[in-house]
Amino acid sequence: MSTNQPRNIVVGVAGGIAAYKACHIIRAFKEAGDNVRVVPTEAALNFVGKATFEALSGNPVSTTVFDAVDRVQHVKVGQEADLIVIAPATADLMSRVAMGRGDDLLAATLLVATCPVVIAPAMHTEMWFNPATVANVATLRERGITVIEPAHGRLTGKDTGPGRLPDPEQIVDIANAVHNGARLPQDLTGKNVLITAGGTHEHIDPVRFIGNSSSGRQGFALGEIAAQRGAKVTIVAGSTDNLPTPAGAEVVSVVSTQDMFDAVYQRAADADYIVMAAAVADFKPESLASSKLKKGADEDSLSTIKLVENPDILATTVTRRDAGQFPHNPVIVGFAAETGDEHTSALDYARAKLQRKGCDLLMCNEVGMGKVFGQKHNEGWILDSRGGVVEVEQGSKLDVAAQIWDAAVAFRSDS
User: Fold this and answer.
1) What average pLDDT score do residues 224-238 get?
2) CATH number of residue 249's parent domain
3) Are residues 337 and 367 in the same domain?
4) Mean pLDDT over residues 174-183, rounded?
């Protein structure tokens, strides 16, 4: 679980062109109040100098087991670490770690460490898919080390493909989630995951719309965790903050609830899991004005807007699944953004929604001013159709996403 106490974090840096991104990772941990020790390889110092790492971390930097021998540094750094994050990790470094070598300070630190270890690879696509690298990654994961899936994008030179280092913010968020207990087993390998995220906009006229404050963070966090657990992820996204795309995910951008409805049903037949995390507008204007409506009392003014219901994406998905239209019989997860009142709690409203919608799992958030929407944290309850309720304590949206995936995978396993 998370703690407010400063952590001892080791940031390992291997010799790749993406080594400069480690500076952002170091700064993020330092700004969170953590004590950071940077342990680069000798090759890493060809890309970022020792003085830079020392200035950012506030700690001395060395690469060899022969420095500070009187303090047994090659043992103490790993023993005292609460979390180790290696970014970037080259194919060479992962090979040495998989073989258990201790020929520099970083490799020796990993041999000693008993804390969570998160490795973020960065290399050319051919290197990432080379059988030797694939085997080394599998070995590291079997030993309990978290190896993050690389991002897809522009690599060194003109090459494009998987192998790019994820954004530093993504690496820090995943590392924090792992430190807080999030599990990233490869239990979604070979599975297709369809997620909706963000808010929908229902236009009144060319410049105005009905919408909400959803940022899409929880939906993208669910995509991030699913991708890191091996899934092929598609996110149908409405209005979102400018969020980084999860590793290898496809993002389909939509505007209205009807757009989202159509996009979901073009893809639902291939899905093994469908997660409806979007905050969709339940109603839309009966008609869309072709020009900007003016203030005033005439019939074309904004004084009265007649609304009609949008399609219910979640309920329709369940109905079509139960009618056998989706060959993979997907587990369906809904969301309920609720506010309680003097008569009924948010949890009770969520129980009623779970029964009404017929989905397998429902994540209930109690929302309101300053709660959930647009925030980096979340909390609530996970309800299932068999009567189970799990309280989700406040944590990052990745922490919550990991718990939702634990519940979804367990639900399918028990079916």
Assistant:
1) 96
2) 3.40.50.10300
3) yes
4) 95
313 is in an annotated binding site: yes
Do 227 and 357 lie in one domain? The reply is yes
Note whether residue 247 is domain-resident: yes
Query: 164 is written with which tokens?
Result: 């790019």
353 labelled ligand-binding: yes
User: What per-residue confidence (pLDDT) applies to 26?
Assistant: 98
CATH code at position 168 = 3.40.50.1950
**Residue 335 marked as a ligand binder:** yes
Angstrom distance (rounded) from CA 408 to CA 293: 46
Residue 3 in domain: no
pLDDT, mean over the chain: 91
205 labeled binding residue: no
Q: Is 96 helix (H, G, I), strand (E, B) or coil?
A: helix
The answer for 68, left when phi > 0, alpha when psi is -120 to 50, beta otherwise, is: left
Q: How far apart are CA 84 and CA 9, in angstroms?
A: 6
Report yes or no on 187 lying in a domain: no
Q: How confident is the model at residue 347 (pLDDT cuts 50, 70, 90)?
A: confident
Kindly indicate the confidence band of residue 375, based on its pLDDT and cuts at 50, 70 and 90: low
**Given a cut of 90, is residue 74 above it in pLDDT?**
no
Of the pLDDT bands very low, low, confident and very high (cuts 50, 70, 90), residue 176 is very high
- 367 in the same domain as 249: yes
357 labelled ligand-binding: yes
* pLDDT bracket for residue 2 (50, 70, 90): very low
Are 295 and 153 contained in the same domain? no
Residue among 204, 248, 202, 199 nearest 228 (CA):
248
Which residues have a catalytic role annotated? 212
Statement to judge: residues 157 and 197 lie in one domain: no
Note the pTM of the prediction, 2 decimals: 0.90
The helix (run of H) or strand (run of E) holding residue 274 is strand 273-276
Residues 117 and 263 in one domain: no
Bridge-based pairing of strands 307-309 and 283-285 is antiparallel
Count of domains forming the chain: 2
Q: 241: how many CB neighbours lie within 10 A of its CB? A: 11
- Per the structure, the complete domain to which residue 283 belongs is given by 192-414
How much of the chain exceeds pLDDT 70, in percent? 94
292 annotated to bind ligand = yes
Which stretches of 342-396 are DSSP H helices? Answer: 346-357
Q: Clarify whether residues 127 and 197 are in a common domain.
A: no
